[in-house]
Design a protein that fits this description.
There is one protein chain. The chain has 8 helices and 7 strands. It is α/β, with parallel strands linked by helices and about 180 residues long. It has a single domain, classed as Rossmann fold, CATH 3.40.50.1950. The protein has a 5-stranded parallel beta sheet, sandwiched between helices. A two-stranded antiparallel ribbon has the order 6-7. Strand 6 and strand 7 form a beta hairpin. The radius of gyration is 15 Å and the shape is globular. The model has no long low-confidence stretch (mean pLDDT about 90).
């Protein structure tokens, strides 16, 4: 049950980011609250205005945004959220998480977050099957991160294989079944 849950939706820079407004709608339909933390590359695929309009909250993208008062957002967001859902999760962001690299808003939030984390990978099938990506996912699983397996199907690069981000309704169903 997601009712009343505060979900931080981390969006990294893959084409599947276009699915995020629908994912937000479906999370809100379950009476969850949603705040978005996006990488700069994610905002090349989906606009902050779209995400803010659907979520009802400002999109957090910059670690060093000018603010009127001191509020390290990666900490305040980590304190606010009950769940961190990263969808889509590129090979890049999975690698950053696994190596402890904190050089943007999303990777910094990940290191400050001490509650359940779910990752929905999205990438080319060859990237998804690469031994380094597999190793990084195993490392994250070893510390309790849960992965929502990508689907098999047509990929943005024109090939067919396992790497499509799972559909929003299936991601929500996964969260509902895990609660």
């Amino acid at each position: 049950m997601l009712q009343g849950k505060k979900i931080l939706l981390g969006i990294s820079g893959g084409i599947a980011a276009y699915k995020c407004p629908e994912l937000i709608r479906q999370l809100l339909a379950e009476d969850a609250q949603v705040k978005v933390v996006a990488t700069k590359n994610a905002l090349e695929f989906v606009t902050p205005v779209s995400l803010q309009t659907v979520s009802g909250n400002k999109v957090y993208c910059e670690v060093f945004e000018p603010v009127g008062n001191f509020n390290p957002e990666h900490i305040s967001h980590a304190d606010w959220g009950d769940i961190l859902l990263v969808a889509p999760a590129t090979a890049n962001i999975i690698g950053k998480f696994a190596c402890g690299v904190a050089d943007d808003a999303l990777s910094t939030l990940f290191l400050a977050f001490d509650k359940p984390v779910y990752i929905a990978p999205a990438m080319n099938d060859k990237m998804y099957a690469h031994p380094i990506v597999e190793r990084n996912m195993r490392q994250l699983q070893a510390i309790g991160v849960q992965f929502i397996e990508p689907a098999y199907g047509e990929l943005a690069c024109g090939t067919t294989g396992k790497g499509r981000m799972e559909e929003p309704e299936n991601i929500v169903a996964y969260l509902l079944n895990d609660e």
